[in-house]
Amino acid sequence: MAEPSSAPTMKDVAREAGVALGTVSKVMNGIPVGESYRVRVEKAVAKLNYRVNSYAKGLKTNKTYTVAVMVPNLVSPFFAKLVNALNRQLALRKYRMLLYATDYDPAQEQEYVIMAEQQKVDGIICLSYNPELKVSENVPMVSIDRYFGAQIPCVSSDNYGGGRIAAEKLYENGCRNLAFMRIGSRLTNEPNKRKDGFISACEALGVSFTLKIVDDGTPYAAFEEFLREHTHAGVPDFDGIFCVTDSLAYQTVRSLRAMGVRVPEDVQIIGFDGARLFGDQDLFCSTIVQPVEEIAETCVDMILEKALSKAPSLMCLPVEYAYGGTTLK
Amino acid sequence: MAEPSSAPTMKDVAREAGVALGTVSKVMNGIPVGESYRVRVEKAVAKLNYRVNSYAKGLKTNKTYTVAVMVPNLVSPFFAKLVNALNRQLALRKYRMLLYATDYDPAQEQEYVIMAEQQKVDGIICLSYNPELKVSENVPMVSIDRYFGAQIPCVSSDNYGGGRIAAEKLYENGCRNLAFMRIGSRLTNEPNKRKDGFISACEALGVSFTLKIVDDGTPYAAFEEFLREHTHAGVPDFDGIFCVTDSLAYQTVRSLRAMGVRVPEDVQIIGFDGARLFGDQDLFCSTIVQPVEEIAETCVDMILEKALSKAPSLMCLPVEYAYGGTTLK
DNA sequence: TTGTATGCGTTATCAT
DNA sequence: ATGATAACGCATACAA
Prior knowledge:
The structure is a homodimer.
Chain A: H1 10-17, H2 21-28, H3 35-48, H4 54-61, E1 66-71, H5 77-92, E2 96-101, H6 106-118, E3 123-126, E4 141-144, E5 154-157, H7 159-172, E6 177-184, H8 192-205, E7 208-215, H9 221-229, E8 231-232, E9 235-236, E10 240-243, H10 246-258, E11 268-273, E12 287-289, H11 292-304, E13 314-317, E14 320-322
Parallel strand pairs in A: 1-2, 1-3, 3-4, 4-5, 5-13, 6-7, 6-10, 10-11, 11-12
Antiparallel strand pairs in A: 8-9, 12-14
Helix pairs in contact in A: 1-2, 1-3, 5-11, 7-8
Chain A binds a DNA duplex through helix 2 and helix 4.
């Protein structure tokens, strides 16, 4: 009622309850204290609507129960799903999430790491394509999909295995002339292994394949041209295409259909990621599904368990194929 | 090199630079100080890789440069786009974002508000459907799409206007038998006005319409049944349908096409939201586009400008129709 | 078991 | 303009 406009502190609670400051602190932290005292404190807390100030607590304990998460953006369904899962995993452990969207900008990524460090987060989970990202050793970091070196554990899907599965599935479905299409950084990040796995499987199966790989920033038109070059009188040179992401696969399907090529009858297409329309409806295409929940859980576990130092420096989680309408059933 | 394992403090910097603590503080805050002093401090900062501890700063200044954002989830493209925009707007102003996904759970929402309060955030931006959400008056709050009362400003799209536009557009495209389909809470939240606007326009145009409104949690099958009931020998009773979200519109299109009804030739469909496939590709359907960037900017402005008290308690931002393949061009 | 006092890293109010 | 010092709210070692 006659509340001071500023939030109540422990001191206020102590006064209200008629106990010492330390007693209130103990109650708030679940440390055993005389029954009658506990009750009085709890009553005062309720009456004043008191909340522990986590800034004071963090300053004192050097523990903030906050983890920074850095991703390029949230509008890509895969990133959205990943952040969603990370948020859930952190919440389950009573941790808060500080979110930074970098828009793929290395300068922003660096700035955000600095912000996170000075925010004294308990850890950073990042999905960055910036090869030069500098991180202080004072804050634990886990990387997703990009290997920074032995001191920073990296969690990713089994990209290599996924590439193999894609090739094998197409082969199993009768394809004998495969193609791989990819857009992305030339940096040796984990997703690059999708191609390696694909090639490896193609060679093992003795099936011919073509690669179309372009750098980040190249307009999609480059792929459209590629497809056109390889289609003669409505008949494509390929009967199976593995695209590095569902997004690319989706666009590819559209282009092909616009050219009069039937998918999956004439060409079968497999993407990579496994996100769904509106988060919970159909797949965008037949695809290699990343185990997003497991990735998120692994990242959070690693960041929070201090075992980070002796953790394996690269963890690849198993992927699986899922039918999504762009392959033969 | 011989760095202590814990992060350097201002005291360390002062010692290194041979100046007083207060001087370092001034330099870090851009307060004028003797040139030679400034240089020495900056050198020491660089050498020690010093970062201001924002927990200590926050404790002292009672300002955290952190805003909490609460949404149901991130996998829904509209929420994802919204959070993405909010993140950008906050970053532009050097603010950090604490993110909470509530999964529509009122208990979690309440818990998160408490967490945010004790985290001493500078404000809370929330998109909640919990009518009983209790918020302390100590922390500024802005609501999106749900009106909580005069003391909490609400920012939303012009849902009513959007409903009108949908009806008018369908009419303009030749439709004379309209339908509105909606799933959602009965609570008087802003999106409910989409229906009101739609009805208002239908009545003004003198066009007949049918409503199909079901509660949250009802399986989509209810709509499918509704559509089937209103389709005879492949000919639907309606020639235009306004769906409360793009998600529902998308599913509706799929159902109709599966029933052999042509979209948009036989029935035209308009959704609401305007998110895009993979965040930047096609629209999911013809739709009423929410001005997400403007909503985000308005929310952030309101939370950060102290003008919150004398702000209008409800701000409706203009929407617009966009063609997305499910209406006649 | 409870109360008291000190310090976490910073800012801000003082004298100097 | 610069340097010393007292808070900010809390946890904790220590005294009672």
